[in-house]
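Researcher: Let's try something more involved. This one mixes different molecule types, so please make sure each is placed in the same coordinate frame as the others.
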Amino acid sequence: MIDVITSTLPFLFEGLWITFKISLITIICGSLLGFVVGMLRTVGGKPISMVLGLYIHALRGTPFLVHLYVIYFMLPATGIAWLQLEAFPAAVIALSLYTSTYVAETVRAAIQAVPGGQAEAARSTGMTGAQAMWHVVLPQAMKLMIPPMGGIYVIIIKGTSIVSVIGISELVRAGENATLRHPKELMLIYGLTALMYFAYCYPVLRLARWAETKFGSVRLPS
Amino acid sequence: MDWIVDYYNWRVVIQFIPEFRDGISATLFISFISLILSLVIGTLAAIMRISSNPVSWRIAAGYVQAIRSTPLLIQIYVIYFSLPELPILDRRLNELEGGVIALGLNAGAYMSEIIRAGIESISKGQVEGAQSVGMTYLQRMRYVVLPQAFANVLPPLLGQTAVLIKDSSLVSFIGVFELFGAGLTVLSERLMPTEAFMTVAFGYLIIYAVMLQISNYAQKKLGGKRA
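Model: All components are placed in one shared frame. Result:
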């Protein structure tokens, strides 16, 4: 048992490193995209808000697995050159789109949680709408956005487990490969894999809870 | 309507209608069983979590933390592949059992957090009132606290159910046939990813739209906060 652990741990750590990389790239890309979507949905007019609402519902209403297969298998089948994605970019794009819906809803909820009087007072001192948003509303909304981001980050980390199906050797795939080498130790190897996810996610969740007590939180529209 | 065939060959999809129909009903069936299981587990865990007995609330909290910080895929693998290694079972779980147990345990953790919030939203007077008419702990839970708690948190419970239905696509990896599996069948038999996955996405969107309607209706029906 000890030799199984010592022989599989290096591979699992390699997988964990790739999981870490994907989740880090995704939280950055997904947050930027989600921030833009959320802002546009809040300040944009009715048509923009409706189109973005459709985008969010379409992504929320289908499993992530379907997004992944659409981006990795369906887009290349269209024959357009720049849609012929490799596995890694396909995984990052699919995860980022998925993340952006959560971030967009968080951003919107946070902006709406700032009392309307704040924006009105800013406008009455002669600020333009954009200035009021940038100098008065957003700084307050930012604090409310931080705690839910921890939960979203954990959702991404867990989401990266699914990209193993398009052949990225992240943690789950590393575990699967290890079970091929030691088919008798399934429970041990999958248990180790689960422990590694726990070690990555648990501190993030704790941090999110700490942030919640520090900054307060907004209720997300479910 | 022939131009559309170049982009989405519905004639092929029509050939596969039996697969997609079976897939949708399997997805609904798996989700339904898992939902029942998760509600039972979630209620038990929520009650254990708020009890003052340190052993019981620590067990419940540990369960919720463990589920929340590991991916569902790993939970499915652990339960399907390694539960049979334990001496408590003398046979292998079949795919459906493994998938449903994993889904139920996974959703149960999230449900328990929601139900706990519901129980904590019940005012103390309700419990004291029930106590004063001589109800036992179980009677208080059964007749006074839980019915109101569930009514208060019905919208988030329905939201979590929608997540459960989406998550059920993952059990196709251990060989359970459901809606996503139907898409995989089309992909492997015809190599037509667009027809396969657009149809699957459409199927999930229909289920999601129905869930959304039910949720809106429930929210309207339950209206404002109760006591």
